[in-house]
Structures are given as structure tokens and as C-alpha cells.
Amino acid sequence: MPAGATRAARRGAFTLMEVLLVVALLSILAVFAWPDFSQARRSEQVDEFTVRARALMAMCRAQSMNESRRYRVVFALDGTLAVYRQRDPLRAPEVFVRVEDDWAEIPAALEDVWIEAVMRLPEGPPPIRIDSESIQFTEFTDEPTAVDSLDEPVFVEFAPDGTSESVRWVIRDVLGRGRRLTFDGRLGRIEFLDVDRIDASAARRPKSEAALPAAYGE
Predict the structure, then answer these.
(1) How far apart are CA 121 and CA 183, in angstroms?
(2) Is 42-216 assigned to CATH 1.20.1260.10?
(3) How far apart are CA 84 and CA 216, in angstroms?
């Protein structure tokens, strides 16, 4: 092989030092990029909770109509959701037992988002008003109450015809993002509105020692 060709081949190849340098640079970039990926994953949980809450309410509404029995969605004092249903609509209509099906446990699976405050909405004008161009929320004098200041959990109960009380609650994530969700029990519909973001250092999941019972009314 001519000497010129040998020198050209050497210039086109990478030395071990060059390869190690590239690997080191990629490692450093990965270290700095990882927190961004983690933050993006956390920020998505507010949106994910909204989707799951819609699905949960729709499922409870459908199940109450399909089974001709009442279902309850309970807003626990620790900022989670739980689902209960009548054990026997005829023989024990006041006894509600915890639903442990996979679909009922889905909203509780998110670690970085929780329910911050909740309130049942008063009877009267629908909480969600829809016109041809936009969706508007009815404004109420009272604001949702922080769940960790409640004496007992709040719940909404679905009747066999699919109707329920209306409820409004606020969710918060570890980054301080907040969202207000409004469920119209007459329409069976959830709409949402983003609320002011708070400093991440002030975003704290509610802590409660009061575990939800396996059944109510026994």
C-alpha cells in the first residue's frame, strides 16, 4: 500500500483517546439532561390525573346505571380518591363497600399529584354552562376546602339513573402546578381550569392518619 494511502487511513480513524472523550462528554450531557426529563414527567401528571378523573367519574356513572345500584366517589383526607358501591341495593342499601377493581384504583397510582381541596356544589344553576362558543363555570361564593382541614371525607353519590351531586376540587403537583376540576352531576361531565401556580417548596401532599374503611354503614 502506498505511504500516502496509509497516512490517509490513519487520519480517517478515531484514536482510543478520542472515543473515550466522546463517551465522557455524552455522559456529562446525560447527567445535566436527566433532571429535565424528570421534571417533564412530573409536569405531565396533572394532565394525566385530569384524564383519569374523567374516566373514573364516567365509569362510576355507567356502573350505577348498569347495575342499578349506587356508587360513591370519596375524596379522602390524604388527597386521594376511592370508589364505593352498595353491597346490596335491596337488602343493605345503606352499606357501601370499597371497590377494588383495577379501574377504581387508577387515579391513586400517581405519586406526584394529589387533591388539595374539595367542595360539593350547591343545588341551583348548573356548575358548567355551555354556549355555542365556549364553556363557562358558575362562580360560587365559597371556595373548595383543603382536604386536610376537613373533619371527614367528602363524597359524591351516583344514583341508578346516573345523576349525582356536583363537586369541584383542586389538584396540585410537586412542582406547584394547580388545576380546578368541576364535575356537573346532571350532565356527567368534567371541565377544568388551571389555577395559580405556587412555589414548589410550598406544595405538600396532605397527610392523614385516618384510613378509609373497607365499608360504610355496617
Answers:
(1) 9
(2) no
(3) 9
